[in-house]
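Table S2 (continued). Query chain:
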Amino acid sequence: IIISFPDVDSDDNSSLHIAVTNGQAINAEILLRRQKKKKQNRMMHMIR
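Corresponding output:
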């Protein structure tokens, strides 16, 4: 599954990039799980 983070700040940093560079690994993990779930939900809707 390819996960994208469309929202970026003025320096083109995604929320995932910001979390990782600031040592917030748990926040990065939460962001990845949330985006993965969104992607899976979209894929399920396409199948139906």
